[in-house]
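User:
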Amino acid sequence: MTGPGDRIVALAENWIGTPYRHQGAVKGVGCDCIGLIRGVWRELYGQEPEVVQPYAPDWAERSGEDRLMQAGRRLFGPALPLAEARPGDLLLFRWRQDCAAKHAGILAGSTHFIHAYEQAAVIRSALVASWRRRIAAVHRFPETRID
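Assistant: Predicted structure:
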């Protein structure tokens, strides 16, 4: 029997190979890390929960706000402890502790995650120590669509 996390991982795996495109969110055409999450959300719930405004590549540095963390809480609910993470969960990353979160992926098992990586594509990466220590939040996709 498969659960919602397995379905989310399967949906994300279908995006593997999609070229990296800043602000993109179209499977097979192009997406960034946020676009991957948006696309999986659309496949799960039929539409996106809110309109995503255009953003520059340096949006996290320029805004002075931790907008990705705020969106995670608003759309997915409270963050979970890393120890409770399971396949299909949203992972948010920050490059340094004093910086806003700026990257997202989907946990694909205890040792891998799927994400859109700049200058590459949507890929499955090992969740090695250098990635693991940058995890800023873990969120679970809602069981029902958020209105």
